[in-house]
Amino acid sequence: MPASQAASPSLESVSVNAARELAEALQTIGIKLPSVRGEGEVNGRAFVHIGGCAADEASALARWIREHR
Question: How many CB atoms lie within 10 A of CB 14?
């Protein structure tokens, strides 16, 4: 099948890959959000559930964002 006719990745695989990418990127700055996971599709779009985390992790992420904007 020509590349132009290849099937698009499912929204499930897109969300799982995005969750993995986010978790890996956060780990590079020392942050681990244990609830990050791909959730498939919500309203026709791939969805990543970020979930909850410990307060110190949230503060570290907020600090990193402020320092790097």
Answer: 18
> Under 8 Å CB-to-CB from 23, ≥6 apart: which residues?
32, 33, 36
Question: Which region holds residue 25: left if phi is over 0, alpha if psi is between -120 and 50, else beta?
Answer: alpha
Q: How far apart are CA 44 and CA 5, in angstroms?
A: 21
Task: Quick: pLDDT tens for 16-61.
Answer: 999 999 999 999 999 999 999 999 999 999 999 999 999 999 999 9
pTM of the model: 0.81
> In 7-54, which residue ranges form alpha helices assigned H by DSSP?
11-28
